[in-house]
Each structure stands twice: as C-alpha cells, then as structure tokens.
Write a structure and sequence with these properties.
Layout: H1 18-44, H2 59-66, H3 69-96, H4 103-127
Helix pairs in contact: 1-3, 3-4
Amino acid sequence: MRINKQPPPQTTPRRSDEPIWWSLFSAGGVCVAMLVPAIALLVLLGIPLGLVSAEQLSYQRLHALVFHPLGLGVVLAVIVLPLFHAMHRIHHGLHDLQLAHGRLAKWLCYGSAVLLSSLALSLWLTSG
C-alpha cells in the first residue's frame, strides 16, 4: 500500500519558451554593444574629423537609406532588440526581487516590448 500519493514523474520534459526570450535578450545586448556605438561614432566623430562628409549624411540620403528594406531592418534591429533586452532584464529583476510571480509579469514585460516595437514600427512607416 502506497502512503505517498505523489503523481508519477513526467517522462518528457515540459516545453519552455525561455530560449526565445533569451535569444532576443542576447541579440539586444549585442545590438546595444556593437551597432549603437558604431552609429554614434560615425555621426558624432565621423563628421567633425572629416571621415564622413556632411553631404553623405544629408536628409535625402539618410531618408533613402533608412527606408530601403535593408536599412529598415537595421533601424528596426536598433529599436526592437534593445527593447526586448531591457524588458527581459526587468522581468528577471522583478523575479529576483520576488515582486513578479507567474505568467502575468512575463506577459506584461514582453507584451510591452511587443507593443512598443509595434508602435515604433507604425510611427516609422507613417512618417515616411
């Protein structure tokens, strides 16, 4: 006769969505560490040092560049990936402080990243 009425152990592990969020977190970290400083150096030091002429960064050229599909991809990566990076940090920070339990915090954090990314994309596309 069994006294312990625990359910039998699962033979297959539960699927997790954590690899998706960790990949967006790491991509956002790489973007912040590599792309943002490169763009800042190009704009902030390239023009004053004469490495880039001001005409190359004129409004018409940059407008054509950022609305090209490849340029739009870079701009979206610079906006969207750091958002997911930050929201992942906030989510796990709240979890570490024991302020967030369950799926609500996950939905709020990652949902706000999706919402802000969608808002940025819609504003970006309507401005051009």
